[in-house]
Amino acid sequence: MGQEDQEEWRSATRNPDVAWATLEDHRTGLTIGRRHEEDDRAAGTLIRCPALIL
Fold first, then answer.
1. Of 9, 33, 35, 54, which is the most exposed, with the fewest CB atoms less than 10 Å away?
2. pLDDT of residue 40
């Protein structure tokens, strides 16, 4: 990250709305998002779209 990116990150993380949204994103990933992923894996669900894997 360059200096400009670091300043933008610092500014964003000091914004209460951004901090709240970040925490909500992590919370969701650890609760309902995880359950959905586990359900998909158990059902054998695969993503069916073009992908470039490097």
1. 54
2. 95
Nearest to 46 by CA among 1, 24, 54, 37: 37
**19 near 13, Cβ under 8 Å?**
yes
Q: Residues near 22 by Cβ (< 8 Å), separated by ≥ 6? A: 13
Q: Which amino acid is at 52?
A: L
Cα separation of 26 and 20, whole Å? 10
For 13-52, the pLDDT digits (tens) are 899 999 999 999 999 888 998 999 999 999 999 988 998 8
